[in-house]
Model the fold of this input.
Amino acid sequence: MLNVGTTNKILRFGEWHAQTLVASLGRLTRAPFGTALTVGIIGIALALPMSLEVFSMNARSAAGSWQTALDLSVYLKMGLSEKEVSASYASIAKQPGIATAQLIMPADALKEFRRWSGLGIAIDELKENPLPATVVVRPQPTHDGQAASVSINLLAHNLEAIPNVEHVRFDTGWVQRFTAILDSIRRAAWVLGALLSLGVLLVIGNTIRVDVEGRRNEIEVLKLVGGSNSFVRRPFLYAGIWYGLGGGLVALTLVHALVLALKGPLGRVAAAYGSKFELLGPNLGLSLALLASSVLLGWLGAWIFTNHQLRSIEPGQTQI
Amino acid sequence: MISFNGITKRYPSGREALSDLSLEIAAGEMVFLTGHSGAGKSTALKLIGRIELPTRGQLIVNGQSVGGLRNAMIPAYRRRIGMVFQDHKLLHDRSIWDNVALPLIISGTPRRELDKRVRAALDQVGLLGREGSFPVELSSGEQQRVGIARAVVSKPPILIADEPTGNLDPDLALEVMLLFKRFNEVGVTVVIASHDVHLIDQLGYRRISLTGGRLATSTQSQVHA
Ligand SMILES: Nc1ncnc2c1ncn2[C@@H]1O[C@H](COP(=O)(O)OP(=O)(O)O)[C@@H](O)[C@H]1O
Ligand SMILES: [Mg+2]
Done:
């Protein structure tokens, strides 16, 4: 239960915080070059891991749309009767984890082969159709390459156990390789993100440390008239928050600009391969996460670097 | 109100600025600390403002032992002491209003009361209407009065001033001293360090004279009508 006095105190507190927040922004805009420099450095530092994350995000969704490449070819035994073929086909199609199953009868397979191979006359010479009936199985799509490759192996194993199935052919090797590459990129993004966050912390901390040094006299005066450490520190923490927010916005702008610049060319490449792949920028969640973490970094950098420094600035050091 | 009990202050340089000094300043009193340069006047005031700590002895201000203050209590302690400095110590990038409002803001005074109190303080020092000016636009005497307004705006029970008239010509100096007199008349305990013996004699308050960090003479307090 809040009594009126407490509520007033809280309101007053909020009011002064808001005013200090605005005042510290005003101070930053009075030194636009230095502020722009700091914000720019932070922006670039944060844009780098962010771009990597956006890139791997897109690559993952692209991998999802390339499920065709995960099709399994199930070859049935030679010389099966049509009834046997349909029975096998039926049990194949019943397997869990299958999106579609398409039966290709030997005659159709041969026609197809004739068309693709360019060996028309040689094939016409054949007395017997050397091709078995085939079922092309498309697994249900998943967006996790690693899991996909595991479940496809399992599916292939199950399919091979069906009577009259001769052999199942599939290639998950590329999925594994691709997934591994994506994982390394993501990991690199995180490591880079952690390192560059540390860099951002140092940049903001140092900028504010220099700022504090330049305002030594002011800080002493504030302490002389009874300002507590937290009162004296507040504008510097807010400066850190503004630097973080500014840097985060610059980073977002850079990433969006990069996505915009690459969207056209990449889309055309994808279209040439018959893919509807479209390069996407960071979504709202990722954008907000970036802003939140850069604001937090700004505040933290300011806090860490000014904590000791502000304590050590005491009016005793100068003549009164 | 303020009592020095065998106070010795030795600076890290080894220089002993105050030696075994004992003196009492009663609540509501107005006293002058005098003495030649280097006698220890500023040091005595710095001890009262908890800007320096005594090396030995006990200093009691407002009923509190100053040496025993925890760091976290220093800001609250200082808010009960108005300090005026020879070099004014104003913030030059802020307006007069902002400078005077500072102690109020620090102590969390409600926003709607600020303007009234800032203007009242400026009125007392004769600078009403200069709220929007900046320190550089004011003369030295006016800046000193802004410093005084800032020191009294939150109505502290104690006011200390170190050479407040040091940079002023005699007329302005007298004016500033009369200002302190007025605050004393409303009950504020005032301690002023000054070597301007002429001016002090003119005002006739109690005089505590230091020499070499020791008490030389201390006149009786006089009653002023
Ligand atoms: N911060 C300091 N460090 C070392 N010595 C100091 C310091 N402040 C003052 N002193 C010395 O202490 C003595 C008293 O100084 P002070 O209190 O300023 O005297 P006053 O104000 O009467 O001129 C002087 O000798 C001065 O040099
Ligand atoms: Mg002095």
